[in-house]
């Protein structure tokens, strides 16, 4: 089977290094390069947000300008092409995308309806006809619907297939019925086997129903979302489509996330020079105003939201403070969790550092300096934090769910096998028990060193997963 030369358009609402709010940004900035290495002609398209650094825009060229029709309104799209070893397209429309944030606006349904239509309309204009359009999350779901219900009338589009990837089923893009008019599809799609979702239109469901194949970012999550506990109301659709539902675990970019070359670190290190990892810890302690001593440092880099198990942490924060540890938090999110960490830092300034911000540079310093990385998620489609931690020899403590279950094997103190600490139930006592077990193993230098080595030797680079994507493209 010749898998190369496939033409793939990767459509995302974010991609590093241009715009990122979470894991999708990492995936969209890394997987396409791994596909390219396998021979695919892959291109990526995202909106042209205000946050995209101007240097990238300066180095882009404008490759298309055209009108996009939303209902009776005519809006203009301008497409910028930025070339790395693969082309990235930024779709410009200032009214929609020249804003401080990426999502969370009242008119998100219009903004992403515009984006989806513009993506399809640009194809003949830029001279690129993909075999597969690879859509990601709710922002791109309407592409699958539009292709099947509108653009199929045009011969040009008829041979294009779609893959729809679920990165997080909790965020579904649910809007009022009038959204159908904006998308320009008629009422016949508005039924329970179409895009209707409890009287509204669901962009996520548009992807799930109309894509040729669906996947999510780990095998365990692919199973979990077929149940009412994890499916957020879409489990029925996923059960119906289970014959085309796949799980492919995410990787991370092993060149970008490399403790030997990462420019954000104070000092680079490898698994042969772990004493330098400790040096990073000392320097970070100094920068964050923590005492410079060799106690286990627990890192938490996360959106501070219920999904990430923040309520378990809040419940056990006082118990954790009884331990001889330091707890370094980096994240933003729900108000009560941000305030809780600030309060704990006020009460335990020698133990807690609360950094309520989004900062990629500080994130790398924390990944490198911490001994443990806490990720007690309620659900986790794949999770990248634990993979980055492994790469930096920082041991994940995770709940057994989704991608965490697929990537972290609990350390067995007898055989010294495993790369982290895993607890089963979404329960604060279980989490605390597992953290305490980790702190206990930390006291045994010999075992800890084996564990760190196991972690650093775990391979979650993109190579294998990219091959699975190539096979999936071929299949559809
Ligand atoms: P999700 O996509 O659900 O937020 P993931 O674990 O898949 O979770 O990916 C989160 C990504 O965002 C990781 O690369 C993590 O390092 C990064 N990240 C999360 N919060 C912050 C923050 N406050 N500052 C910098 N990076 C962050």
TrEMBL record:
Chain sites annotated for binding ADP-alpha-D-glucose: 20
SUPFAM superfamilies: UDP-Glycosyltransferase/glycogen phosphorylase
Function as written in the Swiss-Prot or TrEMBL entry: Synthesizes alpha-1,4-glucan chains using ADP-glucose.
PANTHER family, per the entry: ALPHA AMYLASE DOMAIN-CONTAINING PROTEIN, GRANULE-BOUND STARCH SYNTHASE 1, CHLOROPLASTIC/AMYLOPLASTIC
Top-rank taxon, per record: Bacteria
Keywords tagged on the record: Glycogen biosynthesis, Glycosyltransferase, Transferase
One GO molecular-function entry: alpha-1,4-glucan glucosyltransferase (ADP-glucose donor) activity
Domain Glycosyl transferase family: 292-449
Reactions catalysed, as given in the entry: [(1->4)-alpha-D-glucosyl](n) + ADP-alpha-D-glucose = [(1->4)-alpha-D-glucosyl](n+1) + ADP + H(+)
Encoding gene, per UniProt annotation: glgA
Family listed: Belongs to the glycosyltransferase 1 family. Bacterial/plant glycogen synthase subfamily.
Gene3D superfamilies named in the record: Glycogen Phosphorylase B
Regions that span the bilayer: none
NCBIfam families, per database record: glgA, PRK00654.1-1, PRK00654.1-2
Protein's pathway: Glycan biosynthesis; glycogen biosynthesis
The protein's name in its UniProt record: Glycogen synthase
Species whose genome carries this gene: Defluviitalea saccharophila
CDD domains for the chain: GT5_Glycogen_synthase_DULL1-like (cd03791)
Lineage of origin: Bacteria, Bacillati, Bacillota, Clostridia, Lachnospirales
Enzyme superclass (EC): transferase
EC number annotated for this UniProt entry: 2.4.1.21
